[in-house]
Design brief:
Elements: H1 2-17, H2 23-74, E1 78-80, H3 84-96, E2 110-111, E3 128-129, H4 134-146, E4 150-152, H5 157-164, E5 165-166, H6 175-186, H7 191-194, H8 196-209
Parallel strand pairs: 1-2, 3-5
Antiparallel strand pairs: 1-4
């Protein structure tokens, strides 16, 4: 009885295994092998995509650094066309009006006449933190340029402004955004009232030192 039972058991096992040796079983094994290869290929593709993403991100970051380096290389300060005393007074007025904090190196962003005495091009000077709105910064730089108080090399007013100043939170100003703000300022309906504090600062420099 036991032998017979065991015999039946072996027969069942053999019946379970037998199909894999048939043509249909071989097809199943081949499909499993194909699925295994596809799984490996999928993993390889995923790895390649991850590497490509990293390379792309690195390329973007490298380009951003190159653009920033290009701006800093072009930057050579702003020519202050009035006296050095007027520049010191200008900074004081900005501090009094809550536009900036006192900065011991403020004068180093400017030069006088043809002698560049503000800084070495490769030296890293912290940006001046501008505490007012972006529109007010743009208006001030535009007024200083229009009145002949300063000269921006190559007329790159927004590019150089973004190199000198940063926002209250330390974020960078974007030259294109500064250009957009100038358009808003120029089309403002009540410019004198909105920017009277800055107008007074510019006029003070003109009357006292120009």
């Amino acid at each position: 009885m036991n032998i017979k039972k065991n015999g039946h058991s072996r027969a069942r096992v053999n019946n379970d295994i037998a199909p894999l040796s048939t043509p249909k079983g071989k097809d199943i094994l081949q499909e499993l092998a194909t699925l295994d290869r596809l799984s490996k290929i999928e993993q390889d593709v995923k790895s390649i995509l991850e590497i490509s993403t990293l390379l792309a991100n690195n390329a973007v970051n490298k380009k951003s650094h190159q653009n920033l380096a290009s701006i800093e290389k072009k930057f050579s300060g702003v020519k202050w066309n009035c006296s050095k005393d007027s520049l010191t007074t200008f900074e004081t007025q900005l501090v009094i009006n809550g536009c900036i904090e006192r900065n011991e190196r403020f004068v180093e962003y400017f030069y006088f006449d043809e002698s560049v005495n503000f800084k070495n091009e490769n030296e890293n000077i912290p940006k001046i933190v501008w505490k007012k709105s972006q529109n007010k910064l743009v208006f001030l730089m535009d007024q200083l340029s229009d009145k002949g108080i300063v000269t921006f090399e190559g007329g790159r007013i927004h590019e150089i402004t973004s190199r000198i100043f940063c926002k209250k939170d330390g974020a960078h100003y974007i030259p294109d955004n500064l250009s957009g703000s100038l358009y808003q300022v120029e089309n403002h309906t009540n410019t004198e009232k909105s920017y009277e504090d800055l107008i007074e600062i510019v006029n003070y420099c003109l009357e006292k030192y120009h």
